[in-house]
Amino acid sequence: MRRPGSPAVRPSPARRAGSPVAATILTATLTGGLWTQEVVDTFAFGGQLDAFGIQPRDPDSLVHVLSAPFLHAGFAHLMANTVPLAVLTFMSAVRGVGRFLVATLLIVLVGGGLVWLFGRGNSTHLGASALVFGYLAYLLGVGWWERTPAALGMAAVAFILYGGALWGVLPGNPVVSWEAHLFGFLAGLLAAALLHRKRPPLPGRAPLR
């Protein structure tokens, strides 16, 4: 029995799970938007929108970190990214739409910013593979930081499906932006750490069990 005047202790509410419906809508919106953009770019602009990719260390190109992940150098490039992007987008968003959107912003800004700083000069970097590698890293990082059955299960599935793509963070094909892969991946890990790492309890306040 609680003594009169003593504070009540209530368990914190369970973390709200993500919605599969919302994750599906986000996935369809993102992939549908990419295809719409590529159709418009190809048939209305003749591919000129690709100029809004990242040109490393070009001051006028810095703002292109916001557009580069949503542009593609033709339909073959877009098709190669569509399925892994859709799968990893859904898996990331279903765990929580709000944190997914924040993670996406971090991947775009941090990953793109690093490409702008350290990418090969005299080149244009664009494509959703930066998001693909970012979401893959995000899921792996969430598994590491949370270590719950759901998080570990998602991380395992993501690694089984796309772990082989991690070789893409190394220099190889000269027409492939391994820099976008690498820095997108690092940005995804950063997003997982910032959004899912457990914080220590405040001084003098013991954690509830």
Automatic annotation (TrEMBL):
Organism superkingdom: Bacteria
Report TM segments.
Answer: 70-88, 100-119, 125-145, 152-170, 176-195
Q: Which SUPFAM superfamilies match?
A: Rhomboid-like (SSF144091)
Name listed for the protein in its UniProt record: Rhomboid family intramembrane serine protease
Entry keywords, A to Z: Hydrolase, Membrane, Protease, Transmembrane, Transmembrane helix
Q: Which GO terms describe its molecular function?
A: peptidase activity
A Pfam cross-reference name = Rhomboid
The Peptidase S54 rhomboid domain, residue ranges:
61-197
Family recorded in the similarity comment? Belongs to the peptidase S54 family.
